[in-house]
Specification:
One of its GO terms (molecular function) is 5-methyltetrahydropteroyltriglutamate-homocysteine S-methyltransferase activity. The chain is of the alpha/beta class. It has helices at residues 21-31, 37-58, 75-78, 118-129, 142-147, 158-178, 190-193, 197-205, 210-225, 254-263, 309-319, 347-364, and strands spanning 62-63, 82-88, 103-112, 133-139, 148-150, 183-188, 233-238, 268-272, 293-299, 328-332. The longest helix is centred in the N-terminal third of the chain and has 22 residues, at 37-58.
Length: 366
Amino acid sequence: MKTASQSIFRADQVGSLLRSDAIKNARLQRVEGKISAEQLRQVEDTEIARIVEKQKEVGLEAVTDGEFRRAWWHFDFLENLVGVDGYWAGNGIQFQQKQTKSRAIKVTSKLDFGHHPMLEDFKFLHQAAGDHTAKFTIPSPSMLHFRGEVDRSVYPDEAEFFDDLAQTYKKGIQAFYDAGCRYLQLDDTAWAYLCSEEQKQQLRAKGLDPDYLIKMYLETLNKAVADRPDDLKITMHICRGNFRSTWISSGGYEPIAEQLFGHLNIDGFFLEYDNDRSGGFEPLRFVNRPDLSIVLGLVTSKFGELEDKDVIKKRIEEAAQYVDLNQLALSPQCGFASTEEGNLLTEEQQWAKLQHVVEISKDVWK
């Protein structure tokens, strides 16, 4: 068994980056029919190559494509699974005083993983990364159930749906591995809802049982990652919502900590810890594996002001009371642009945040 310290990046990132003006303009031109899909991709290629180099410059060892080819952190991936359709709905997702665009997804036929377009997206990133690690982010399988609608005529038995979902992801994980991926991150907001009593009440009002969701999501995730290659690192980011610097849910990790940290068979967790909404470090006492990394999201991606380095270091010391320091790392609490609109800070502030993470990590893990 590897220890976490053998495979951890002390300074890491969640993945999404602010879309550049060139990307935004090209996407608008594509919608208006002024450029072709191939021309849009050429702009994306150029901008992704630029931001990969910038990530290297600030000192990150694992680089991403910033999700520059996506409008959403989850829907773009999910609606390209076999059996899933995307469509425009009546309402978007409600955040604090803000609402997203009205995209939605529905399972309309049996699930499978075909020639997913993001395989080519990863291959480009892998080439651009060079001797750095190419990190790719996809939504957790839980998100298809949590954010999507399932046609009950296709899956009258929900157990069959979850089994097919697990097998679809298992096939997808292998496909990314075959394309060269050795660092895959699963992004998930469902678990954060299950930390919030307010959100659990809303789930119950919709006829959903939070305890059932915990059981099924955990089983599905473990089936999906089972038998993966030994040299493929899989982590999960648990998010409380990230849209235009706003959020959805609050609540510490206590309600899910024992299940997730003790029973989910992945290599690490990215945990939001940038404010009081995330609770304290006490739930980390359930981390009982020396090979499980915990990446502390102590630097916010929602605003541009830099945190006091000494305050961040002190909080890392506090977390180390529950988890060995060698299993810990540092990152922003979320991406900078979970949707193409992005958070309310500048690109210059974004890079300063990431460099801040790198500098603090060098001080802590000398």
